[in-house]
Model the fold of this input.
Amino acid sequence: MPPLPRGGVAVLTGAPSRTGSARTGGCEAPLSVDSRGPAARSPHRGQKGKHGEPPEGPDSPPLFRVPLHRLDARGDVRAGSAVGAGPPDGGQLMDERKVAAFYDVVGNTYDQSLYFLACEAPYRSEIRRLSAGRRFRRLVDLGCGTGKQTVMLAPLADEVVAVDISPSSLQQAEARCAGANVRNVRFLHESIVALSLESGSVDGIFSYGDVISHVHDAYRQVFRESARVLRPGGFLACEVDGKWELDMLLHDPQERARARAARGVGHLRVWRDIPCKTFTDRELRGDLAAAGLRPVSMRGVNILHCLLPPSVLMGLPHSVGAGWRAISTALRGLDAAVARLPWFYRLASTRLVVAVRE
Done:
């Protein structure tokens, strides 16, 4: 990307410390939430249409302004800067308040569609594969959302740390844990760009739901921060957007033109006015390696399944009819069969990546 302009500010969002919107410690006791800044979750695929501006009011997170001279030429936070972002792909800054507002509004409804249900089996498969025969001291669910993966991770570790930007999502994750009698989760309402966790204190990080792609102007910082908190040999298991999504190639000429214009790197893919960073295979591997993370596996999610009509793909199972449910099941089976083949996972809507801390 071109050098950032001198002077001016990058407007970022964070949240003040607060009590009662979610809890730290076990799920069963109302304690305070540690709130140290912005984090992110992606609205993920298929969420078409206009999303309104986030609400303003006394509970809205305050704005933090980071001078652009505190960002390096790639848009990453310079050493000593608490949090920041640099605008790639045309100068668009991430609005984390909009992200939080989006998830506060959609709550636990967004992840019930056929698209998201197709993600659950790959998530479970990867979690089982990475945890086989192991017991962890501490795992992190980075961008935990409503806690679906948090509950899966809890039996595998002495402690799970669940991080998210949305207070409403954290409340729902907490309730999900309480309903499952999970008591070893600590919730943090803080930045995934600048985690409060100690260096070398984490065995593994799971970040599913396209979280890191959503931090489109500081994703390299997230990779570095993940490497910092991981112990040597620890792993980052994350989900990111692929640049050459099959559905986009076949059906979206405008995005296809933007993708071609971004030579050698990913472009920004936008839903609900919220951009997500896409990656080429070489770019992703290079960025992970630069952070001290060695990629060891990749698999695609929602490859052929994304060719379903949008109204079906984002529909609830009971509303789409038995025929479409059967087609969805068949396409998910085909996706699973080809998910790890390079020329197929590169066509996926997203890909699941595992990288190990050197």
